[in-house]
Amino acid sequence: MAVAALALALMAGPAAAVNPDEQLADPALEARAHKLSKELRCVVCQNQSIDDSDAALARDLRIILRERIAAGASDEEAVDFLVQRYGSFVQLKPPLRADTLALWFGPLGVLLLGGLGAYAYMRSRAPQKVGALTAEDEAEAARLLNSDKAG
User: Are 84 and 38 in contact (CB under 8 A)?
Assistant: First the structure.
């Protein structure tokens, strides 16, 4: 019972994806790397930063990032190196540029297209205007109403 409770408690907490063997010896450099890895997307998980992801590729990206920082690269140079290899998608908040417009406005475009499609569908299903009843239709309606009252 205690083992099950411990296992449940461990699963409930956030995953500590950065392994001790990945960390830099210099605390200042490690702090920079940690800050940057929270801003980079795991291209496998897509909704997690490489700092939070347990994926093998995220581990590789964390190591590459730390190698670049240890080699003396600035924060911008280290991130640019990964962007050159994986594209702007690797950034959790990509800059607004011509090549990232789809990342920024694609979801809005899909939402608008879906709304327009729903509107067109609802318009096609709207009741059509019916012309005036003919004398025969009025007579039939009257007959049905009278037969309903009689029965």
Answer: no
The two tokens of residue 88 are 């702007």
Q: What is the pTM of this model?
A: 0.58
Helices (H) and strands (E) in the chain, counts: 6, 0
Token duo for residue 147 = 């037969």
Residue 66, Cβ density class (10 Å: 0-12 exposed, 13-18 middle, ≥19 buried): buried
pLDDT tens string 84-121: 998 888 988 888 888 778 878 888 999 999 999 999 99
pLDDT tens, 25-36?
788 888 998 999
Dist CA 55 CA 117 (whole Å): 38
Contact 42, 50 (CB under 8 A): yes
The CA dihedral of 141, 143, 144, 150, to the nearest 10 degrees, is: 150
